Amino acid sequence: MRVLVTGATGFVGRAVLPKLTQAGHQVRILLRPSPASPRLPTGVSVEVGLSSLMDERGLRADLLGVEAILHLAGGEGQGSRADLALSDAEATRTLVEAASQGGVRRVLFLSHLGADRASAYPVLQAKALAEDAIRRGVVPYTIVRSAVAYGPEDHFTTSLATTLALAPGFFFLPSGGTTPLQPLWIEDLATALAWALDEDGLVGRTYEVGGPEILTLRDVVGMVMSAARIRRVLVEARPWAVRALVRAGEALLPRPPFTPFWIDYLAAGRTAALDTLPRAFGLQPSRMQDNLGYLRRRNWRREWLRRHARQDGIDG
């Protein structure tokens, strides 16, 4: 089966591409025209389509011969600069319209736990609008609402490790770190998405998935500190104060560890039934404590400084 993947160069996309090719799928990735080289996993053979998600004519050309779409693209990684109504909601509507005209037989969409048009958080509003566009379309769909995913090069645990390393002896926890989370190992999420493409019994349904345990944000920060060999005093802070600090960092730094969208996501508990992945996908997810080895033996402060030096042209 030929599968078009949007958001293929992102955190989830890079993890799922090898699993799709290993399963025997022909993979076509959708890239926006850009002079920059895409970050893709090595050793994975893919076709490339060049088009914006807002270009319906370009999408129709890139969908020729495609039987299924794995839609991972979203705009939250751009921080406050993102126009989520455009990058998530409108872009998904355009993709679904092009898919309906191109004979695509399946759309698999990765959403977030808590997606709701009435949500106070822009990311969750945008994901809900994207879900609505998919449900209103004529192409059979499956929607997977995922808990926060973690793994190497993520925007969660590695951002926590970086922020902890940069923190001056203490670290602010929104609401004391009581928010319940259900972190999902990226390899488990990628496996579930790859398997879902081949399961007709999942069509027309929305699934909420997460890891095998419910942890508080304080628990997660403690695990990250232990794995990264960082010690900080955890201090309770109001969510609005943490958000203000993050916005200040976003304004001052070209590549801040966290964006306001992430603080919004961590502001309220979002969990799923613990048995969804085993029951619906036949997959037993792994515990977070067993998967944090990638945080060890790294100097997170030094790595952050090097990234910023390259960003500013200091390294030549």
Brief write-up:
With 316 residues, this protein is α/β, with parallel strands linked by helices. The chain is 39% helix and 17% strand.
On the 0-100 scale, what is the average pLDDT?
Answer: 88
Q: What strand line-up does the widest sheet have?
A: 3-2-1-4-5-6-11
Largest sheet entry: 7 strands, parallel
Total number of helices: 11
Number of strands: 13
Task: Identify the CATH architecture of the largest domain.
Answer: 3-Layer(aba) Sandwich
Poorly predicted regions: 312-316
CATH homology group of the largest domain = NAD(P)-binding Rossmann-like Domain
The CATH topology name of the largest domain reads: Rossmann fold
CATH class of the largest domain: Alpha Beta
Give the domain tally. Answer: 2
The helix-and-strand class reads alpha/beta
User: What's the gyration radius in Å?
Assistant: 19 Å
Shape: globular
- End-to-end CA span: 44 Å
Strand content: 15-25%
- Write down the secondary-structure element order: EHEEHEHEHEEHEEEHEEHEHHHH
Helix content: 25-40%
Helix-strand layout with pairing:
Blueprint: E1 2-6, H1 11-22, E2 26-31, E3 47-50, H2 56-62, E4 68-71, H3 84-102, E5 106-112, H4 122-136, E6 141-146, E7 149-150, H5 157-166, E8 170-174, E9 180-181, E10 184-185, H6 186-196, E11 205-209, E12 215-216, H7 217-228, E13 233-237, H8 239-252, H9 260-265, H10 276-281, H11 300-311
Parallel strand pairs: 1-2, 1-4, 2-3, 4-5, 5-6, 6-11, 7-10, 8-13
Antiparallel strand pairs: 9-12
Helix pairs in contact: 1-6, 2-3, 3-4, 5-7, 5-11
How is this structure best described in words?
- The protein is α/β, with parallel strands linked by helices and 316 residues long.
- It folds into 2 domains: 2-146, Rossmann fold (3-Layer(aba) Sandwich); 157-180 and 213-268 and 289-308.
- Helix content is 39%, strand content 17%.
- The protein is built from 11 helices and 13 strands.
- The protein has helices spanning 11-22, 56-62, 84-102, 122-136, 157-166, 186-196, 217-228, 239-252, 260-265, 276-281, 300-311; strands at residues 2-6, 26-31, 47-50, 68-71, 106-112, 141-146, 149-150, 170-174, 180-181, 184-185, 205-209, 215-216, 233-237.
- The chain has a 7-stranded parallel sheet, with helices on both faces. Strands 7-10 form a two-stranded parallel ribbon.
- Helix 1 crosses helix 6 (186-196), helix 5 packs across helix 7 and helix 5 (157-166) crosses helix 11 (300-311).
- It is globular and about 55 Å long.
